Amino acid sequence: MQIHNQAMLRRHFLLEDAADPASGLAPSNFRILIVNEDMRSADTLKRTLNDLGYFATCTAYSAKRALAVAEGFAPSVALLDLELPDMTGYQLAHRFREHLSRGIRKLPLLAIAEFPAHATAELTRAAGFMAWLPKPVEPVALNALLGKLQSGAWS
Question: What is the spatial distance between Cα 25 and Cα 20, in angstroms, rounded to a whole number?
Fold first, then answer.
């Protein structure tokens, strides 16, 4: 019980540090598109985001569905699993970069990969990702990346 409370306390302080009042986007208003075919992994990631204060999320379980909802949802960032049932995360990133909507073309992308062989800094950067995170996603690392995006430290 005490460990759980300490973890929540650490998350609370990390959340305070990550929020940049000048950005105008509190974590709860930062819209995140989760693209992952594994429902349990996607739900776990969504719960992690909720624990970090990010409540505006949309989950797509395929690349096709992600493409269908992206423009209407208008995400601030997309977390893409690199292994999807209908195309790879790299192919989906390419489709986002070719999208007719400028907002979708410029959408910040974070890759999520189970095996380092599927994601390297060079491969993900070349595909238009800002960074990649290994599975299981560590809340502290995810919060740090989202904080950088919100503060404009990444452009």
Answer: 8
